[in-house]
Each structure stands twice: as C-alpha cells, then as structure tokens.
Amino acid sequence: MNVVVCVNHVPDSAAKINVAPDGKSIDKTGVAFVLNPYDEFAIEEALRIKEKHGGEVIAVSLGGDSHKETLRKALAMGVDKAVLLKDESTRDSFGVATALAEYIKDVAPDVILCGKQSIDADNAAVGVMIAELLGIPSVSVVVSMKLEGAQAIVEREIEGGRETVEVTLPALFTAQKGLNEPRYPALKGIMAAKSKPIEERIPSQVAQKVEVVAIRRPPSKGTGKIVGTDVSAVPELVRLLHEEAKIL
Amino acid sequence: MEQEEDIERMKILAFAEQRNGKFKKAAFEVVSVAYTLAQQTGGEVIALVIGDSIDGIASELGEYGAHRVLVVQDPKLALYSPIAYARIIVEMAARENATVVLLSATALGKDCAPRVAVKLNAGLAADCIAVDIQDGDIRATRPMYGGKVLADVKITTPVKVLTIRPNVFAVQSIDGTRPQCDVVSVSLQDADFTARTTAVTIGSGKLDVAEADIVITGGRGLKGPENFKMLEDLAEVLGGAVGASRAAVDAGWRPHGDQVGQTGKTVSPTLYIAVGVSGSIQHVAGMSSSKYIVAINKDKDAPIFQIADYGIVGDAFEIVPALTQEVKKLLGK
Ligand SMILES: Cc1cc2nc3c(=O)[nH]c(=O)nc-3n(C[C@H](O)[C@H](O)[C@H](O)COP(=O)(O)OP(=O)(O)OC[C@H]3O[C@@H](n4cnc5c(N)ncnc54)[C@H](O)[C@@H]3O)c2cc1C
Ligand SMILES: Nc1ncnc2c1ncn2[C@@H]1O[C@H](COP(=O)(O)O)[C@@H](O)[C@H]1O
Question: What is the DSSP track for A92-143?
Fold first, then answer.
C-alpha cells in the first residue's frame, strides 16, 4: 500500500489574524505557522496503513519554502519521503488541487489522505477536488477506516451520526479529528528529519476561478451585557431573551 | 443605470437535501437564497431533489420559491453516494443551462460541491454566510481563519458553485404557485458507486448540534459527565441540542460528535448558551456566527463574555437549574 498525504502549512489556531495593507490577505508578521491540525490525523493514518500493510508514505505540500517546516514535521513523525511543490502564488482550492493531483498522478498511490479542512481559508474542498481530478472515489470527514484488499470500509461523520461507506481503491480520504491519536515525533525522528532531503518540483500554473476581493474583521458584537452576577439575574436574562432578542 | 440592464437572468439550480423522504431545513434555506438571487436578476429557481421515492415531497419547495422541481429517484440513491450524486447534479445543471449551483454546507453538500465544481469547470465559494448581487454578479461572504476574518469573494467562471452555511439564512415562505415537478430519469452505472454508502447510524436520534436552532454547550466548568444532565433538562424545555467544548470531549464526558469548535462542528443557531466554557479562540471559531450568545461563567474575565450578548457571572450549578425553571414558567410548561 503506497500512500500520499497532502499537508498544509497554516497559521496556528491561536494566532491573532490581522488584515494586511492590501486588504485582501492576512498580515503574516509575527504569526506562527504549523502543520494543519487535521493533516496530523492524515499522517498518522498513513503511517498506520504502512505499519500494517507495508509500502511507502510520501508527504506532499504545495507552497513556498516555509512549507518545508511542515514537511519536516511529517518526516519527524515517520513519513518516508517529503515533496515540496514550490509555488508562492495565490491559488484557490482548484489551483491547489490541480497541482497536487498532477503530482499524485505520477506516483499513483493506493491511498491518498488529506485533512478535512485547512484552518486558514476553511474551504474543506481540496481533498475531494483532487479525487475528482484523478477520477477516483473519495470519502470526506472520515472518523474510522479499515482496508481490506482492494477495498476500504470507512465511517464518515454526518449530522447526528455516521455513514458507513465502502470504497474501491485507489481512493482519497479526508481525516476528521477522532480518526486516530497522532503520535508525537520521537527525538530520534526529529533529528533524522533535519538531514533528510526534501524533493522540490515546480507545479504548472492554473488560472484562478475564485478571487478574494477583500477581507475584513467581522463586525464586533459590541460589548455584551452582563446581566448580573448570581442566580438573581436569571429572570432578567429570560426577559431579555423573550422581549429584546425575541427568541423565547 | 446601464449596468442593471446587463444583469444576466440567473438560472439557479438549488440542491434540496432530504433524508428519509423529509426535507432538511437546509433545503428550504437553499431554495430561499436561490429565490432571493433570482428575484434580483429576473431569474429562475430550479430545485433538484435526489433520493428514493421522493416525488411526493417535491412540490413542497414551491412554498419557498422554486419555480420548477426536478426529481431524480432510484432505490440506489436512497443513501448518499458521492460520485452518483455529483454526476446527477452536474447533468441537471447542464440540462437546465444553470449558471449557479447552490447547495447547503451540510455534510453532504460539503462533500459533493467540490466534485460538482470541478466537473462544471466552475469556481466554488464554500460555506458562505452572505450571498448578494453586485454589478450583476454574485458576491459571497465567507468566514476564514475560524471566523477571525470575513472574506468577500468573487467567482470568475461562467458557472458558479456555492455552498451556504446552514442556519444562517432565513427560510422565507412566499406565496408561490405550485411548481412544476418533473421526474427525470438518469442511467446509473457501477462506476457511480465506487464509493457507496451502505449504512447510516444516527446516534440516539437526538438533534445534532449543527442543525439545532438552540445549542447549550457545556465545558470543563461542568466538572463531570453527570452534570450535563442539567444542560439536557434545559435543552429539553428549549427544544435545543447539547454541545460540548473540546475539554469536555477530551475528558471523555461527551462524544466527539457533540464538539463545537475548530476541530469539531461549526454551528450557527439562533441561541447559543455557553456554560462553563472559557471561550478559547478554537471554541469561538465554531460558534461565533450564532445570532445570540449567552455566557454563564463564574470568571468575569473569561473571554466568552467578550462575544456574548448576555452574560451571567456566577456558578453554573445554581444558574442553569434556575434558568430551566424560569423558561418553563415563561413557556407555561
Ligand atoms: C488545534 C486546536 C484545536 C482545538 N479545537 C477545539 C474545538 O474544536 N473546540 C473547543 O472547544 N476547543 C478546541 N481547542 C481547545 C481550546 O484551546 C480550549 O482548550 C478549550 O476550548 C477549553 O475548553 P473549556 O472552555 O471547556 O475549558 P476551560 O478553558 O478550562 O474553561 C472552563 C471554564 O469554566 C468556568 N467554570 C468553572 N467552574 C464553573 C462553574 N461552577 N460555573 C460556571 N463556570 C465555571 C471557568 O471559569 C472557565 O472559564 C482546540 C485547541 C487546539 C490547539
Ligand atoms: N497547499 C497545500 N498543500 C498540500 N495539501 C494541501 C494544501 N492545501 C490544502 N491541502 C490539503 O487539503 C485539505 C483540505 O484543505 P482545504 O480545502 O484548503 O480546506 C488539507 O487538510 C490538506 O490535506
């Protein structure tokens, strides 16, 4: 079983996000970037597949040199090989998916793993787009996964429950929290990752289909009302919900 | 203005999601948004329903503004299968020359829309919280970075695919005439089912946090799983669902499916009550688009108060039961 894992490099979820002077992008000064949290579940699953079924795990990321940091983390966790599709341009989900699909097509793995969503643009689209571009099945928001021969039986999270999906490999899966418990890279892995090569490729360019016109901070709610400081405030809260907010 | 004459009459394909022969509220939201867009452009709303034996419910969509409804039904389509559904949506969009395909950002919509967009060579604006017409074109607003910023986006392709965040848009009942409903047959092949849903398990049949109009979330401040009972009591009188912070889920008090936040579910109910939840950035990412936020926390400096419309500083163990009683009184229960 050969597995490709797509990993993204994103602002830490706790980072404060400010709008850059161009009004269309974020100001990256002082923002810490990390391996996209959902992609950790994807890497972990890839490693478990390899441990059980053999094969090779390749981590691939599209982006600038800074993405090497995230690829090193993937190497430290135990992937065999890391590939950077070097590109500094602004791409929409389709542009990202096209570049990744182009690379993955060459490798022709049995399984492709992505995270459910990048926590930067929050599109939750790249994974499924890659699958469509490759003409293979996919299951998104996967919380459990079992491979049996040329088939996978997986569960995905839906509103109020789960769907069980049977899939013919090769296939793509996007990982949701709960799929597994990602390992911490061991010190040995971290050291080894430092000296491992990261292969670089130049992806082809594609025109954007979606453009960000402007970004802004959401309107602040204004300071909310502290209705009271103990149980005596409850009737007033209910009155406000009833009369002011008109929801009860 | 000259530009207004140029407005293209939009033909909008609105995918109306149903489960077990019953429309989701999200389906009515999609049709309502499609109707608003069509009104502004003199366009047409063509709703699409996919499933098994669902022709009986199709006309319900007229009430929300569907001019026509396409029904694709087959026992094999009873449960969602990604490739089959995407292909049908694309075929129906092509059949109708639709320039806009609208879905809800539900589990199904989020899974299907990227495939539909690629097949139609269309740009995708995902999880939109506002959709308007500007200069004859669609302008959508979508949260990014866990809601820390809002982006206005423009789709530059001739055909446009959008998903809209559930619970954000109002369902509008209009005096629509009964829409024309057409059962359209499509030929299904084995290749459409290389990913095939074989079963759906719905946990305890309770309302999901992502779909509920009122969500009451408990955090670490609740101290233990047994204390969620008081939230369930409140949820019952309010007709809401109970959510949990990651701290409560990680402690094993609640299932992951109930988690609200960046690595859980995104919710935007009319009323969100956070109890013993500090309001971390990652939690807020999943609930900041709620219409009204109530916070109950004993720490007056908890960040949750910064985004709350109404707050009570105090002990949840006293306040929540009192709140349940007070609501009961109001509702005459
Ligand atoms: C990558 C990443 C993703 C994450 N994703 C999520 C996510 O999806 N969802 C999420 O929730 N978190 C997420 N987190 C975790 C988040 O950072 C916080 O740790 C978590 O939200 C804290 O949960 P809490 O508010 O329940 O607990 P705490 O922060 O411990 O807050 C407990 C609160 O309860 C109050 N309290 C205590 N006793 C009482 C009482 N008797 N009455 C009233 N109030 C009381 C306290 O004053 C305190 O404010 C994520 C973190 C990371 C790094
Ligand atoms: N630049 C990128 N490089 C590699 N993988 C990516 C990139 N962007 C997104 N992905 C993958 O696609 C998933 C979904 O991303 P998105 O559609 O951006 O929310 C992520 O969790 C990654 O697995």
Answer: -HHHHHHHHHHHHHHH--SEEEEES--TTT----HHHHHHHHHT--EEEEEE
